[in-house]
Amino acid sequence: MLKIKNLHASVEGEMILKGINLEINPGEVHAIMGPNGSGKSTLASVIAGNEDFEVTDGDILFEKANISELSPEERAHKGIFLSFQYPVEIPGVSVTNFIKTSINQVRKSRGQKDMPANEMLKKIREKSALLEMDRKFLSRSLNEGFSGGEKKRNEIFQMAMLEPKLAILDETDSGLDIDALRIVSDGVNRLRTKENATLVITHYQRLLDYVVPDVVHVLMNGKIVKTGGKELAKELEEKGYDWLKEERAEMSS
Amino acid sequence: MELKDKLMSSYLAFEEQVDLENDIHDVRNKAIKFFEQTGFPTKKLEAWKYTSLNSILKEDYSIFPKKEDAIDYKDIKKYLIHDIDTYTIVFVDGIYSSHLSRTTHDKLDACLMSSALDKEKYKPVIDKYFNKIVPEESMTALNTAFAKEGAYIRIPKNVVAEKPIQVMNFFTSNEAALMVQPRNLIIAEDGAHVQIIERHQSLTEHPILTNSVTEVYVGKNAEVDYYKIQNDKTTSSLIDNTFIKQERDSKCSMHTFSLGGKITRNNLKFFQQGENCNSVLKGVTILEGKQHVDHNTLVHHTQPNCESHQDYKGIFSEKSVGVFNGNVLVDRVAQKTNAFQSNNNILIDDTATCNSKPQLEIFADDVKCSHGCTIGQLDNEALYYLRTRGIPKKEARALMMFAFANNVLSSVKIPEIKKRITKQIALKLGVELGFNL
Q1: Can you give the pLDDT at residue A62?
Q2: What is the pLDDT of residue B434?
Q3: With an 8 Å Cβ cutoff, is A188 touching chain B?
Q4: Domain A2-252 listed as CATH 3.40.50.300
Q5: Which helix (H) or strand (E) element contains residue A238?
Q6: What pLDDT is stored for residue B403 in this prediction?
């Protein structure tokens, strides 16, 4: 579904991603772990199409089509979703109006008519219940004054509404207490199908106890330095990232 | 001939059309003398520092329109709030159009200034209210000198006007360039309620200059909601002078939607003359091209326990210019005043300009007054966030601009106006968004 080849990306002239190779198939959950500053969030942003980053080399293929030149909205229309580490507050736009606009714009891009109001309402009710969201929450301004947990729940709610093919969860566990973590990861798990894929980006192994990955990659200094099964995450939790640094140093010497 | 000289000589011709025995004429004479001495305002005056009238004063305006031009209801329908029942007072080139208007004398007066000034039975009202709260300034004096026609609205004690009243000024291609000076008087007596919609709309490409003066009297416990829709052509300019006097326990709100015009200047002054008054001044300004809008506001708190809320939002593209000069004056006796003011602006392009100047003068010591001005750009982070949800750039920008203006739109009490303004803004931004605000 997603195939990344030799991806190099920079921001303001500074090279952050230095040759990423990654392939994710339908039905799979991949995790990308790594220390702070290794380029994890940059990778998420580049896949989503953030124009602050410049792809200097390599390709991003989504369902066999090169999407490197597409705008963020075009990627969303194709079924890529990014759950933000820091969701942006937008005063004056209610959660409901926002999600309605979002869904109908995606439908429009696919040549479909607006979703009928009653169908929309039903879907909003169903998906907000999945995330245990209060109805009052839906009429509030998008992310404005939301707690950390509310923001993340709102992200997964949007994911549930949009039903993407590829969901990228950028540090979704940060700022979550244990109850919120359970609600959010239950939501993510229930949205999993054989056709869609999930890319979980995280610093800690904690989230991976709930959203169990098929493949774990370790990203360091802009490169994937190790790939393994879910047990790799456990190993990282115990040993930290330093042993990998040493391993790499040995390899390069 | 300079416009000022033309106006001075026109005044002599004007005197032949009006009743010189009427007391009002003394007021006019005094006003024309004042204007003769002061002339048009220039940027040297602090209150006009950011707005120059030079570009519009050089036109050769016709001061007296010939006569009502033949326009049909279908020509103006789209500018009216026509989906609800209203009283409508229509002027074409400054002259009352009876066939386009729906006036009334039933329970309340929604009719003409000319008859109020001429007819004996209105004399006590005119003596009591006409030109009583208009500060002597050059533009207001000029209007007073030529005061003859406009809307006269009087809502008697405890009467609730069940329909909004629309005051519509249209301009046609009858004259090459035209200057008009409407003079409106609005009186809501004690306990009365009224909603008013005012619009100036050109139907021609000829230069139009409107210098209007409106006096609004809000009696004890009375409530006035006033909406000004300014979405005129780029050949039309408007100098709007509106003065509002509020008595105790009254409420008055003014919403100004400035979406188009060459130069628009809003002089809006509230004088609170009793306790527990509430004044609301809100505006949304969205401009592009070389359009220029200047909001000059004042709320004068002279009594204790009153409130005022000023909230103006501006979005400026291309070479447009926005000015906000918001004044709040709290007298020493006006303790427990709550006065809030906020002016937020977004500059879409580097070439757009915004001048924001809050001016608070507070002489009482037990008050809550706040002000905040911001001039910024659309938040790129937020724009990106919306785009990752599949909302295209143009729509995402529009959504953010609507959100920005929403605070002002949300307090509009006539749903048709809200719908209309929302649609006009969407049209301006070139989007069709399927959401309601």
Answers
A1: 97
A2: 53
A3: no
A4: yes
A5: helix A231-239
A6: 87
Q: For residue B136, how many other CB atoms are within 10 A of its CB?
A: 13
Q: Do B384 and A101 touch (CB under 8 A)?
A: no
Question: Chain A interface, mutation test: which of B385, B395, B397, most A Cβ atoms within 10 Å?
Answer: B385
Q: Best interface-test mutation with B: which of A83, A98, A143, A157 has the largest number of B CBs within 10 A? A: A98
pLDDT band at A243 (very low <50, low <70, confident <90, very high): confident
Residue A239: which pLDDT band, with cuts at 50, 70 and 90? confident
Domain extents in chain A: 2-252
ipTM here: 0.95
Q: Which two tokens stand for residue B193?
A: 């309620």
In this complex, is the C-beta atom of B425 within 8 Å of any C-beta atom belonging to chain A? no
% of residues, chain B, pLDDT over 70: 98
A154 by DSSP, 3-state: which?
A: helix
To test the contact with chain B by mutation, choose from A11, A50, A53, A88 the residue with the greatest count of B C-beta atoms within 10 A, namely A88
Alpha carbon distance B272, B250 (integer Å): 9
The mean predicted confidence, pLDDT, of chain B is 94
Q: Is A215 left (phi over 0), alpha (psi -120 to 50) or beta?
A: beta
With CA atoms as reference, report the closest residue to B358 among B402, B322, B327.
B327
Q: What is the DSSP string of A156-195?
A: HHHHHHH--SEEEEESTTTT--HHHHHHHHHHHHHT--SS
pTM: 0.88
Contacts of B180 (CB under 8 A, 6+ apart): B65, B91, B93, B94, B169, B171, B208, B209, B210, B211, B212
Query: Under an 8 A CB cutoff, do B389 and A102 touch?
Result: yes
Partnered with residue B378 across adjacent β-strands are none
Q: In what order do the strands lie in the sheet with A2-11?
A: A14-24, A2-11, A53-62, A65-66
For residue B159, count other CB atoms closer than 10 A to its CB.
Answer: 17
Output the six-digit token pair for B112. Answer: 């003409």
Contact status of A21 with chain B (Cβ, < 8 Å):
no
Spans of chain B below 50 pLDDT = 436-437
A221 in contact with B, Cβ within 8 Å: no
Residue pairs spanning A and B at CB distance below 8 A: 83
Helix (H, G, I), strand (E, B) or coil at A81: strand
Q: What is the DSSP letter of B44?
A: T
Chain B residues with CB under 8 Å of A77 CB are 390
